[in-house]
Amino acid sequence: MTTRTVDTTQELAAFLRTRRERLDPDEFGLPSRRRSRRTPGLRREEVAELAGVSIDYVVRLEQARGLRPSAEVVEALARALRLAPDERAYLFDLARRRPRDAGKLATTAAPPLARLVADLSPLPAMLLNHRYDILAWNDEMARLLVDFATLPPSERNAMWLCLKHPVVREFYADRERVVREGIAHLRAAWAAHPDDQALIDLIADFTADREFARLWAERDVKVNGRGRKALRHPEAGELDLHYEVLTPLQDQDQRLVIYRAMAEETRSALDRLFSTWSR
């Protein structure tokens, strides 16, 4: 499925509306006479007052009427809406006000990074790009998840595996959280790379999945650099893993993902699993 490039004006409007509507007026100390409301969140005039812009300006932004706010206005709106750091970066990307890295988008692993992934054994490790395409992996990661070498390139994508692979999609004990976090990352990548047609087509394909479409519509934005994953591995059993995501300075479209055991039981289970691996 193919779709057009990101309509940032429409997305900026929708994002501002959803962030405004999620705010609790009681947290802003607004006078009680102003708090009688039929719709959730803050009113447009309240956001305008907090950001120091006109009500008409906020209305026109939320109606996608072609405005391109300055960096100063974007910052003021981010403060008024109490955006988290990743949401703030997303707003700057939508407004085209964040400096962009002119580096080339990664479609293959940088050779030094591919060697590093192999050298990290016995820790499971893999290399991704901003689309979640899997560019390189070591034997331990292939044993833990799936033998990536047996998959066609179009399926070597971490989000595709989580959504569609008949075995991998059942691995996660808290699958909705994993999918939600992955979608929040993809949304940030989508705004940061508006001309990446491969990413746009990938998201269009994913939105045919009902679960993905529902969570995508919530417009959560977050880039996770570390966290935990609980896996129900068909051979190793229950696994409690910590993951770390590192971005190399010289290849900033590539992300090194490393898994480590959180407990001795998981470490022992991984040792047994990896000892049976043969290519």
Automatic annotation (TrEMBL):
Name of the featured protein: Helix-turn-helix transcriptional regulator
Source organism of the structure: Amycolatopsis coloradensis
